[in-house]
Amino acid sequence: MPVSRTVNQEILSFFRKIEDKSTFYINSLIVSGFAVSHGLAVGKDNLLTKYLLPAEENNLIKFVRLIKSSPCFNTESLVELFEYVISPADKEVNGAVYTPAFIRIFIVKSILARYDMSQWTSMLYADLSCGCGGFFYTLIEQIKDNNPKLLIGAFIRDNILGVDIKEFSIERTKLLLALYALQNGEDLVENDFNLYCQNSLSNEFTEVPVVKHHGGIDVVMSNPPYVASSKLSEENRIYSQTWEVSQTGKADLYLPFFQLGIDCLTHGGILGYITVNTFYRSLNGSAFRFYLSRNGYDITIVDFGSEQLFRGCSTYTCVCLIEKRNTGLIHYVETSSKRLNNINNEVFEAIEYKELNDKKGWILKDKNTSDRIRAIEKVGKPLGEVVSIKNGFATLRNDIYVIKPNRQDFRYFYFEKEGQEFKVEKSICRKAVKANLLRLEEDLDLLVEYIIFPYYLNNGKVCIMEDENFQKNYPCAYSYLKGKQSALAKRDKGHKKYPKWYAFGRSQALNINGERLLFPHICDSACFVYCEDDSLLYYDGYAIFAKDHRQLVIIQKILKSDIFWYYITKTSKPYSGGYFSLEKRYIMHFGIPELTQIQEEELLALEHQAQVNEWLKPFYHNMLSI
Questions:
Q1: 146 located within any domain
Q2: Which end of the chain is more exposed for a tag (fewer CB within 10 A), N or C?
Q3: 582 shares its domain with 489
Q4: Alpha carbon of 402 to those of 227, 399, 541: distances in Å?
Q5: Dist CA 52 CA 27 (whole Å)
Q6: CA–CA separation, 174 vs 188, rounded Å?
Q7: 557 domain residue, yes or no
Q8: d(Cα 482, Cα 487) in Å, to the nearest integer?
Q9: In the chain, which stretches have pLDDT less than 50?
Q10: Percent of the chain residues topping a pLDDT of 90
């Protein structure tokens, strides 16, 4: 849970300690506490009536006291509190998370600004993963601020459609809106809502009466669920596969929510999402990019870059406003959340779809930067064609296979795991290094580890040891791994059948020989460490292999240059702290100049990187001097 802005820690701590965690009781406590503390009189037909606790109820008395001692506990506090009491399991499986008020307000205002005010109360608004109804509350509040005579109950009944996969979310949306209406002198009843507990990916909501009555949906707004493809429920996995945008890579759950939101819109309708900002660059987003490009939908993207808006979540986000009409344009700006309210149309860069590469990923930059990037990629040959770029090994349980001996003798390594000492035969271990930690060549010796390696070479091919041979020749290593067998069986959620229970999770990088450049997944500077030990295994990173030592050193000098890092900062995925991804797909298109032998000698003779940077400028059109 992110640190709260509207709910103080005492209230959150209070709810953590409550023994009765049933949904109905928690809802009753929140409803009763809010009504009592705000002096709200609940009518006998109001749907809130059944949630009212006796005034003398012990937890209610404590909760009201906490509310009254808080600097502010308003309707926004309800939104956050309802989201807070969702279980951690539901947050992971269904992607539920509290959306800050300033984001919801920006999205709602941006959408409403595209319509005449007279249209606001005649359109159908939907949130297809409505959670606890925060977007609906913000929408109604914004419209009522401009139209004080708005009847909230009638607007909800005629103009709001909510869908969520969890019944408690539907229930809490009703409670939130009913409490907001009550503050404005209205009592809501069950029949005032068009809220449905469904899996939106099934598309069943398109057949409900309010959608039929309006002839479609005019506005879809949401924080679509972000669930990684590896954590999808079986139901969501099956539904996701039916959507066009989920047909490439390992599509996360938010991608089909984009398509279902757009597809259900009327012509000219608008979708407004706060979502992860990886779709326009990632492999998984390529089918979605093709979908958008083919239709030419008008898109506005407000990208927050490496800023993390959702505290406690390591995701990077953007606001997407998609108008269902073909303009062939994307309007893009990168900004910070602090400057969000100062954005105007003049700051957006207008980019035509036809200028973008749907397969490789969109480079959404100004024309000057885009031209520079294209020029860099046209220099010589792409890095991916000059060298081989390979992932490290993947056991899927490095904490078991990778060991750090605290002592050794002639035959064994001794190490500790979870407070217990083990020993394994030295002859079954291989040297390994975590590439993500490397910055300098000296780090190779400092960071060396060992990996238990139950494989052998047979005519140049790596083969898994047979149980009998493993147990006979390496009894200590076998015994150690045997004690971890149940943990190893849980890799890939227990769905994958391995050749042996002690086999690595993936067979990649088990027989990679030759000197190489090791580099991390993400870095804050160009970091390519030369390694001459061709037997060293590596993980959590990549390695570059060249045809010979000479070429490898040349490549290292080029990749540590200013021009390469400029390219990365403009094309790669940003992370907080000034870090950028060095994933293979982000570096493989960088242009490597084709040098003559004399030029190679000149480059190899340069000892300082500043000299290399200056020497390389003419090959890249002196663009960093412009």
A1: no
A2: C
A3: no
A4: 29, 6, 15
A5: 9
A6: 9
A7: yes
A8: 10
A9: 1-4, 88-95, 626
A10: 77
Q: Which amino acid is at 115?
A: Y
Domain end position, chosen among 494, 524, 553: 494
Q: Do residues 454 and 507 make contact, with C-beta atoms less than 8 angstroms apart?
A: no
Cβ atoms within 10 Å, residue 354: 8
One domain, residues 522 and 616: yes
**Domain that residue 620 falls in:** 516-625
Cβ-contact 438, 527 below 8 angstroms: yes
Report pLDDT digits (tens) over 219-278.
Answer: 999 999 988 877 888 898 888 888 999 987 788 899 999 999 999 999 999 999 999 998
Residue 524: count other Cβ atoms within 10 Å of its Cβ. Answer: 13
The answer to the question of residue 434 being in a domain is: yes
CB 383 within 8 A of CB 590: yes
pLDDT digit string (tens) for 408-455? 999 999 999 999 999 999 999 999 999 999 999 999 999 999 999 999
Check whether residue 487 and residue 529 sit in a common domain.
no
Sequence-separated (6 or more) residues with CB below 8 Å from residue 262: 220, 271, 297, 322, 324
539 and 452 co-located in one domain: no
| Whether the Cβ atoms of residue 519 and residue 542 lie closer than 8 Å to each other | yes
Task: Give the number of other Cβ atoms within 10 Å of residue 311's Cβ.
Answer: 12
Distance of CA 599 to the CA centre of its chain: 44
Domain ends where: 438, 462, 494? 494
Cα dihedral sign for 251, 92, 540, 558? positive
- Residue 217 domain-assigned? no
Q: How far apart are CA 247 and CA 276, in angstroms?
A: 18
Distance between CA atoms of residues 243 and 260, nearest Å: 8
Q: What is the 3-state secondary structure (H, E, C) of 153-211?
A: HHHHHHHEEEEECCHHHHHHHHHHHHHHHHHCCCCCCHHHCCEEECCHHHCHHHHCHHH
- The C-alpha atoms of residue 311 and residue 258 are separated, in whole angstroms, by 24
What CA–CA distance (Å, rounded) separates 126 from 354? 31
Domain count, the chain: 2
Task: Quote the CA–CA distance of 493 and 490 in Å, as a whole number.
Answer: 5
Q: Which of 459, 445, 603 has its CA nearest to residue 532?
A: 445
Q: 474 and 574: one domain?
A: no
pTM of the predicted structure, to 2 decimals: 0.84
β-strands 329-334, 297-303 pairing:
parallel
User: Is 619 in the same domain as 531?
Assistant: yes
pLDDT tens by residue, 291-310: 999 999 999 999 998 888 77
CA angle 422-509-551, nearest 5°? 125
Whether 477 and 412 share a structural domain? yes
What span, in angstroms and rounded, lies between the C-alpha atoms of 412 and 83? 53
Q: What are the structure tokens assigned to 542, written together?
A: 């990549």
558 and 607 in a common domain: yes
Using DSSP bridges, classify how beta strands 125-127 and 160-164 pair: parallel, antiparallel or unpaired: parallel
State the Cα–Cα distance between residues 626 and 612, nearest whole angstrom. 18
Place of tokens 């914004």: 142
